[in-house]
Amino acid sequence: MGFLRKYWSDLGVLVAVGVGLYLMLQWSTIPAIERLLWLSFIAILVHQYEEYRWPGYFAGLFNGLIFKSSHPERYPLNPQSAMIINLVIAYVFYLVPLLFPTVVWLGLAPILMGFFQFIWHGIFANLKAKTFYNPGLFAVILFHIPIGVWYIRHIISTGMVTTSDWIIGTGYFIVAVYILIVKGNMWLKDENSRYTFTRQQLGPYAHKS
Hints:
By secondary structure, the protein is mostly helical. The chain has one domain. The protein contains eight helices and no strands. The protein has helices spanning about 1-25, 30-50, 60-65, 80-95, 105-130, 135-155, 165-185, 200. The chain is globular and about 50 Å long. It starts with a helix and ends in a 7-residue tail after the last helix.
């Protein structure tokens, strides 16, 4: 568990590279909707690597700046809770739609989460930090948004999406954000956690610890 806790985001990038090679080799044989869902899966893995490994100081921003924690190295987010939340998001929320690619609302929800990431990273966090960048924003701009636009254009142009898909997909996205991100961080917080972020993961907010 200690190895996974330390290297889960690095392993995620290896998975992303593997999926990318698979797509390159099998692109013409994979249905378009599945190609887009695989690309969306790659996007979240790259996003998580950017947040927790390089430049990797999302934890410091989240704990030290957003929550003004007196223990930003472990509260409210800590390496254990970050690992659990992010693995569930990537390997359940983003990956399950590939098992049912024609169930549009199931794939639409992660796409909407990708757009939501721009609101969080591109607007909210930057306004709080008074910056133009924070870890996760490059993945949003280079992956989530273009892939999301591509996905939505595809399901509309092919007539795959229905009004019910939009309603259910939006509702599922909102519930997922609330449970996995909002409540997940609250359920797993531990001010006395023995798991602490590294100085790199705290970044410019390390001095607040």
